[in-house]
Amino acid sequence: MNTPALCAIPVPDPGEIRPGDSLSDKLLAALSAQDLRLEAGDIFVLKHKIVSKAEGRLVRLDDVQPSAEAAAWAEQFHLAPRLVELALRESRRIVRRRDGILITETAHGLVCANSGVDLSNVDGGDSAVLLPLDPDASARALHDQLRQRLHLEIPVIITDSFGRPWREGLTEVAIGVCGLAPLLDYRGQSDAYGYVLHASAEAVADELACMAGLVCGKLNRTPACIIRGYRYRADNGSAAQLVRPAARDLFR
Amino acid sequence: MNTPALCAIPVPDPGEIRPGDSLSDKLLAALSAQDLRLEAGDIFVLKHKIVSKAEGRLVRLDDVQPSAEAAAWAEQFHLAPRLVELALRESRRIVRRRDGILITETAHGLVCANSGVDLSNVDGGDSAVLLPLDPDASARALHDQLRQRLHLEIPVIITDSFGRPWREGLTEVAIGVCGLAPLLDYRGQSDAYGYVLHASAEAVADELACMAGLVCGKLNRTPACIIRGYRYRADNGSAAQLVRPAARDLFR
After folding, report:
1. How far off is chain A from B166, nearest CA to CA, in Å?
2. Is residue A31 in a domain?
3. Taking a C-beta distance cutoff of 8 angstroms, is the pair A4, B222 a contact?
4. Quick one: which of A250, A241, A251 has its CA closest to A109?
5. How far is B92 from chain A (nearest CA, A)?
6. Which of A130, A154, A188 represents a domain boundary (last residue)?
7. The model scores a pTM over 0.90
8. What's the pLDDT tens digit per position in A175-226?
């Protein structure tokens, strides 16, 4: 083909990730086992779960004592009381709680179901995975490790699947970013017709997360991918820039 | 590379699209001029603007008489009164109106800024583009034309850029779909650890729209792309399935 294509290349299964594991070791080994390698210009996108596992953000449900509030609400909607308890502990604000759905704001400012606490793809339901404490720092750490190992500046995006108001289904969002501008601001630039754009910026880190979500499935062991062919803007941006400040948020 | 990649291939500039133009003629001509062709398994993704133009969903601003309400609100926030008037006409409900931002629900049930009415990439600011009257029908029409021309079943997705609560920046969403299931429901299936998934479905049509958004820029004339290598589920689904029914919406 003549035109440059934008591609997502799945990273092969790195095997189970355990607390203390080096993600760069595991993922680079999985790549070279398949004769794949990162190249200059690539972006590395990971689902947060392997990051949380490497960082030990796991809680055995047997060790969680639900509060009376968590237990009562869980019973009413046939939910797991220990999961509700963890979701409440990981939240700094309850955004909505209705019909068995708990939407919270996490310490990171992320608005999502159950504070991002999840039982899938861990150990069959015995343990819960929490979001990384500081996903931007996690992205930066991996970015730095990749630079040391490969002598390349590879932007890193860490993702999770969030629901949205008004629309059905989950999509991936960027919860940790290092090495690229997460927002591209077109305001003030002219389109091909000379019209000066007024609309807001494009959340390219979330769009890259969505693209990665199409190859990093929920039911296969593909927790990461390489995105090749996207001309990103190198920047010391972070996923925190994607969180709208309360003062500018019409939906609090 | 050994592993199959997922790729987005930009469709070259089809030239200006005018009311009554055949989109399939224009886009297929642009593809063959560059020795590109659609293949079995491809998905065709278009920004809605060329669909609206082909369907004549254009309004000359000089022909719009703003109501007193639109004029007063526009003046308060230094907005274009005719654009506000069109946004109100195209809405069936005002979701939020504050600080010069107008979030509405359109007749399609889409919640977005200014009912999707937009002045960019038209003619330098003299005319506004409205959303297609029925974007699912528009997608179906193009799908049928591609079948007739190519004897291939090519799913079609029509997109627009929407903002989101709580997060900065716009991302692409699917407003018209034909030929694939827009939602993949993992509920009841087991992950690699034997845990049965409870979370909601994945909005793959929106993730495909986001991926397309990365190659279909705002400032270049790339209104469409081919997505190759995504194993979609063929289905007579529609983008209407992505609109959450009011009864299940926690954010009305």
Report:
1. 5
2. yes
3. no
4. A241
5. 15
6. A130
7. yes
8. 999 999 999 988 878 877 777 777 679 999 999 999 999 999 767 789 999 9
Total domains, chain A = 2
Instruction: Judge: B169–A206 Cβ closer than 8 Å, yes or no.
Output: yes
Average pLDDT on B124-146 reads 95
The domain spanning residue A94 has which CATH number?
Answer: 3.90.1660.10
Are A243 and B9 within 8 A, CB to CB? no
State the pLDDT confidence band at B113, using cuts at 50, 70 and 90.
very high
Instruction: Note the pLDDT tens digit of each residue in B197-207.
Output: 776 799 999 99
Angle subtended at Cα A110 by Cα A207 and Cα B157, rounded to the nearest 5 degrees = 25
Query: What per-residue confidence (pLDDT) applies to A1?
Result: 43
Cα separation, B149 vs A53, in Å, equals: 50
Structural domain for B196, as ranges:
1-56+132-243
A chain contacts of residue B214, beta-carbon cutoff 8 Å:
6, 204, 207-208, 211, 230
Instruction: Considering only the beta carbons, identify the residue of B12, B120, B243 that sits closest to A197.
Output: B120
Amino acid letter at B162? Answer: F
Query: Measured between alpha carbons, how far is B130 from A36 in angstroms, rounded to an integer?
Result: 45
> B219 vs A189: CB contact, 8 Å cut-off?
yes
Instruction: Please report the ipTM that was assigned to this predicted complex.
Output: 0.95
If asked whether residues B220 and B139 sit together in one domain, one would say yes
Confidence of residue B3 (pLDDT cuts 50, 70, 90): low
Burial class (CB in 10 A: 0-12, 13-18, 19+), B200: middle
Which A residues 123-142 touch B at CB under 8 Å?
123-125
